[in-house]
Design brief:
Oligomer: single chain
Number of helices: 7
CATH class of the largest domain: Alpha Beta
Helix content: 10-25%
Number of domains: 3
Largest sheet: 10 strands, mixed
CATH topology of the largest domain: Pseudouridine synthase
Number of strands: 16
Strand content: 25-35%
CATH superfamily of the largest domain: Pseudouridine synthase
Radius of gyration: 22 Å
CATH architecture of the largest domain: 2-Layer Sandwich
């Protein structure tokens, strides 16, 4: 049977897509079409908004008609990866605008870089009726805690604006090796992120004058000693990749179980002695203004059972 010939599509912009960039709108609608091809047809003028040419950064509005030229979706291979497993996560808050969950450690927030699926793909599979569901921010795969998702585009834009403006409050619980010095309360050190040949991210502290360094500020409060370790409350004024992990390790007190920036020998010995095999970094509290009501919301995710058990043992 011959494959269907691609046809011109005429799309109507709904209220949920109001204000979205044209390129992002098309990438969401044309799932599976290579990003380079989407940008090529926009640049060539084949994509029309209300019969006129438009650029990638054009903002679409409710009711706009978008003409999309014929594009061929990639054929599904018989050996293609199976769909993400449907999975729900503990809900901390949910309404018509947002969903906040307690993310477990060991689950990526999204697929990619060798990860077949993450929280967002699994939630979409579990909620096929959801018209819109997007991550507002991210947590490392090894980090547990409060994760915020938007159920409306207007909520996504409003919440992401708060994150960019540093109007949110984020507090983490971190267990580090050694006795944390009570006088060390502020870490203000620039960070530089690089990618290796395999696309793996690596972050390191660099001098403030480094041309590629980005100022990064972490606030630390020692909660209590825990055996050979210290339990910390950590909040961040800047949201750099791996910021907490790199700052604490650079201070000489790596996070227990950190597989990338930690003390590997101590991690191994600790896992063997205590039966604890994850990284002890937990996003325990998140404060933000509700995108619809403006009310200040503070959410807390309980310390995971394995983390609490470790503290009790120590």
């Amino acid at each position: 049977m011959a494959a269907a010939v691609p046809a011109v599509q005429r799309l109507k912009v709904d209220a949920e897509s109001d204000g979205q960039r044209l390129d992002n709108f098309l990438l969401r609608i044309l799932k599976g079409v290579p990003k380079t091809h989407v940008y090529r047809v926009i640049r060539s003028g084949e994509v029309r908004v209300n019969s006129g040419r438009a650029a990638a950064d054009t903002r679409v509005a409710t009711g706009d008609e978008i003409r999309v030229p014929p594009v061929r979706l990639p054929e599904k291979r018989a050996d293609s990866a199976p769909p993400a497993p449907a999975r729900e996560f503990p809900v901390l808050l949910e309404d018509d605008h947002l969903l906040a969950i307690a993310k477990p450690a060991g689950v990526a927030v999204h697929g990619g870089s060798g990860v077949s699926s993450g929280v967002i793909e699994q939630l979409r599979q579990a909620r096929p009726q959801a018209r819109f569901l997007e991550l507002v921010h991210r947590l490392d795969k090894e980090t547990s805690g409060v994760l915020l998702l938007a159920k409306k585009r207007s909520a996504l834009v409003a919440l992401q604006d708060q994150f960019r403006a540093r109007d949110t409050g984020k507090t983490y619980a971190a267990l580090v090796f050694g006795a944390w010095p009570a006088s060390l309360k502020v870490i203000d050190q620039a960070l530089h992120k690089t990618l290796d040949a395999a696309g793996e991210r690596h972050v390191r502290v660099v001098p403030a004058a480094h041309e590629d360094g980005r100022r990064s500020i972490t606030l630390v409060k020692a909660q209590r000693p825990a055996g050979p370790c210290t339990l910390l409350d950590v909040s961040i004024k800047t949201g750099r990749t791996h910021q907490i992990r790199v700052h604490l390790a650079h201070a000489g007190h790596p996070i227990v179980g950190d597989p990338k920036y930690g003390d590997f020998a101590r991690n191994k010995a600790f896992a063997r002695a205590q039966g604890f095999a994850r990284m002890f970094l937990h996003a325990r509290e998140l404060a933000f203004d509700h995108p619809a009501t403006g009310e200040r919301i503070t959410l807390q995710a309980p310390l995971p059972a394995e983390c609490q058990k470790l503290l009790d043992q120590l």
